[in-house]
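WARN retry 2 of 3 for item q-0093 after timeout on previous attempt; input resubmitted unchanged.
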Amino acid sequence: MSTIRKQSILSSIVIYIGFAIGLLNTYIFGREEYFTTEQYGLYSLFNALAVLFSSLATFAMPAFIYKFFHYYKDHLPHRKNDMISWALLISTAGFLLVLTAGLVFENLIVRKYSENSALFVQYYYWLFPLSFGLTIYTVLEAFALGLRKPVLMSFFKEVEWRLFTTVLLVLFMLGVVKDFDLFIKIYAFSYPAIALSILIYLVVTKQIVFTFSISKVTRRFFKKIAIFSFFVYSSTIVFSVAAVFDTLVVASVLDDGLAKAGILGLATILTSVIQAPQRGVINASISSLSRAWKGKDLRSLQHIYERSSINLLIFSVVIFVLLALNYTEAIDTLKLKPEFKMGFYAFVFMGLTRIVDMGSGVNAQIIATSIYWRFELITGFILMACMLPLNYFLTIQFDITGPGIANLISFTIYNGVRIWFLWHKFKLQPFSKNSLYALLVGAIVYAICHFAFSGIHGFPGLILRSTVALVLFVICIWRFNLSPDVRPVLQTLLNRLQQMRK
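OK item q-0093 returned
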């Protein structure tokens, strides 16, 4: 667990650096003098659809790499490893199919979005280079994670990609990029840029080779790979649609849909800040989970499952409380568009969804790397069966707050089913009494800071609420030893602070 802990921490640090850059980008987007809410909504919708299109295009090749990486690595010499070659070829072919479908159904897109999201229709074609770049990057990222490069992959996706956007925003502000038309067209090549970066790294370091000679591993496991990829791809479609359906519904059915998609986009970005440590833990644990299943090491699986749950729960509660305490105040203090405050309750429900999801640990990755990976498809259909109708009807009923409520209900059911499954099959479960204590601490800290400092506004209020909340969290985590991984990290930080004083 120490290796996973170290890589998780480093990945999370890199991810949070990326999110800090992302928040700077959001701040620029949120200023009235640079972009309209509708333009920011287009940016958010582009990102959501790029994820959906790339998920459809990859044909589950990232999951194939996660599952079978060690089989190829352990049984083939480096120059004969054909895994990444076939994965990239199949994903490229998949993108061509997505592109074809996008052109065929263009008239449907125009009918659905021309009234409430006309700007999206205008720039529809520029979505495809963005999606292709993300498709190639996703496959290369999976391969690099198998090589145990989680920190570097976090840098490429979380830092470099956002820096690309930052530079583009600065050029826009300085007038070098003359208008939004040129801005969005250049932005469409942001994901291709990071895909090219990781490809260059892998080629230069000689960690990737391309061969289309069918290896003995591919021949031996072809049937298993095909079945596995089919089921995972089916579940990927389900999860991808579920992940972006709220933004699509808001942009399609609500008046000023693209503007409201922008408001929802801000809430989504902030909840993704909550989710940042989950990405680091997943990146660091996938390889270990795959090897543990290969060795049928249930003890290691339980260890990773329980530790991931409490660590992610603590982090998610801390970040959620900090953001909830300062959401509306930060919009006023930073002089962002006042309509962004409409997204507060959407943020609350989406943030609670992230707490539920992260507190459930790496159950998705445990199932996906096990012999019961087909169950991911079943839970995916359960998620979609709950989320799609709930999102549609609750959005109509409660405007942009509706998707948050729908997500909370759907993900609670979804994770509950997966937790039950792992307990039923393997007696694996993620929770302990500290899970309850972490939630109680979060509720108490929020109540104290909200009522004690509600009358203090501006930067003093933001700083005071955040500082006091963090101090209270650190004291409680230390005093009650809520996580065997968090306390050693705090101890290390304290020791280094004492050394600096000397």
